[in-house]
Amino acid sequence: MQRLWIVAIALGLSLCASAAHAQGAFPNKPIRLIVPYPAGGIVDVVSRVITEKLGPMWGQTIITEARPGANSNIGTDAVAKAPADGYTWLITGPAITANPALGTNATWDPKKDFTALGVAAWSAAAIVVPAASPANSLKELVALAKTRPLNYGNPGTGSSIHLSTELFKQVAGINLQAIGYKGQPQIISDLLGGQLDVAFAATGLITQHVQAGKLKALGVIGRERLKQLPGVPTLIEAGYPEAGVMAWYTFFTRAGAPREVLEKINADLGRVLTLPEVREKMEKLGAEAAQPMSLADMGRMIVADTDRWAAVIKAGNIKAE
Q1: Do domains 30-123+247-316 and 125-243 have the same CATH topology?
Q2: pLDDT tens across 221-262, in order?
Q3: CB atoms < 10 A from the CB of 57, how many?
Q4: Would the CA dihedral through 122, 123, 129, 131 be positive or negative?
Q5: Selecting from 3.40.50.620, 3.40.640.10, 3.40.50.970, 3.40.190.10, what CATH number does the domain 125-243 have?
Q6: Domain residues of the chain, as ranges?
């Protein structure tokens, strides 16, 4: 009888351990993904390319919630205050690394309060001018900007386009006057109409106009030339390597989540990123599909970008609007 009790107890403990392991396996409930920009925008669309593959892989729903406002601070702050369990995510651009230096009401530190889980995509952008512009290269654009004032369209203080433009201005030693807009589509419209001298714009918005001869692309912000614009040099090739910093769309969660959870998310994001259909969809969106990166590499990238944009913002005396 004693043996039977021992066997029963051992079996019970084994079943309890198995149940506990199953209950603790990540993820065992839906993921909440906050997008701090309007629904239907590029960040929202890019995130769905990833989550529509990742959710079925896990057998869980990934619920996307748009929480725009305050230069992305509202949504970002919500994730900073969420439980540190890996079940609440944020997808955002470089604003998370720039907002604290802009003097916004950001109460979080991107280096300490978040863990970067993986880059969803790199934002491909180009420097474009109207077809009638006398500038036919970046060197000529810089020379022109030193002879007379030039203006450019700014879709939002602290946006990746704004930061990229400010960085180029400082590297090239020129001054471009920012004209504020609520988004890039109107910028492209005014550039086509000749109301603007230059724009830094997502390639998905300008490629057709460049191919039609209505705009001239002078440089690509990226590591390689774009398939859509093979004749356009990168900023590195054009002689401005320090300005060739690409923006990204990256998944984050609040810092402090269990290490095994973070490792699983990072590894499975990496698997999704290598899927041919995902890479094809990113290209169609005018973005560059990201290569998988480790958590350590992600952390180093966020630290470097936070320091870089803080220096650019200080040098340009840029303040939040």
Answers
A1: yes
A2: 888 888 889 999 999 999 999 998 888 999 999 999 999 999
A3: 10
A4: positive
A5: 3.40.190.10
A6: 30-123+247-316, 125-243
CA nearest to 263, candidates 298, 294, 290: 294
In angstroms, the CA 95 to CA 318 distance is 13
Token pair 């900007």 in the structure block, residue: 145
Q: Which residue has the tokens 């300490």?
A: 112
DSSP string, 170-184: HHHT--EEEEE-SSH
Residue for token digits 């692309």? 217
- DSSP 3-state assignment of 107? coil
The predicted structure's pLDDT at residue 321? 67
Burial letters 197-207, b for 16+ CB under 10 A, else e: bbbbbbbbbbb
> Is the model more confident about 204 or about 152?
152
Round to whole Å and give the CA distance between 74 and 2: 62
Q: 30-123+247-316: which CATH topology?
A: D-Maltodextrin-Binding Protein; domain 2 (3.40.190)
Cβ–Cβ < 8 Å for 96, 252 = yes
Half-sphere exposure (CA, 13 Å, Cβ side) for 177? 9
H or E stretch covering 116: strand 114-123
Sort strands 31-35 and 88-92 into parallel, antiparallel or unpaired: parallel
Helices of type H across the chain: 2-24, 42-58, 73-80, 95-102, 138-145, 160-172, 184-192, 203-211, 259-273, 276-284, 295-316
Tell me if 62 sits within 8 A of 118, measured CB to CB.
no
